[in-house]
Amino acid sequence: MTPRGGKRARRSSDAGARRAGGEAGRGSGRAGAGRGSGSARRLGTPKPTSVIQGDGGSPRNIAGRAVDCVREEWVVEDRWWTGRPLRRRYFEVVLLDGRNVVVFRDLVGGGWFLQRS
């Protein structure tokens, strides 16, 4: 079947190479395709932050911004069977400017971290 006008559409010579995973296949759309192993990055990496605690240990101030309310609080305990256990107390809070933020206190190593801002 030919398109209108009687001319056949031509495929570029690198289209087949793309499908075959050749040199032109670097733009294949797969995450990490054509990249070295050192170029991957973790999403949502926790960042150290400063927190002033209120009653019961919940955050009252995060990085100089006042907390309006604590929406949710939970504890995560994982890898307890290894030499590197993970134990964190998370807080989802609303700041006075209306932003939702998730912070946690590392209950093993200490310190506060911003998980999502």
Write a brief caption for the model.
The protein has 117 residues and is mainly beta.
Structural classification: mainly beta
Query: Sheet with the most strands?
Result: 7 strands, antiparallel
β-strand percent reads 35-45%
The gyration radius over C-alpha positions equals 25 Å
Q: Give the termini distance in whole angstroms.
A: 54 Å
Order of helices and strands: HEEEEEEE
Number of strands: 7
Q: What is the share of helical residues?
A: under 10%
Query: Order of strands side by side in the largest beta sheet?
Result: 1-7-6-5-4-3-2
Mean pLDDT: 79
Low-pLDDT ranges: 9-30
User: Helix segment count?
Assistant: 1
What general form does the structure show? globular
Describe the model:
By secondary structure, the chain is mainly β. It is globular, with a radius of gyration of 25 Å. 6% of the residues lie in helices and 39% in strands. It is built from one helix and seven strands, in the order αβββββββ. Strands 1-7-6-5-4-3-2 form a seven-stranded antiparallel beta sheet, with no helix packed on it. It has a domain at 47-116. Strand 5 and strand 6 form a beta hairpin.
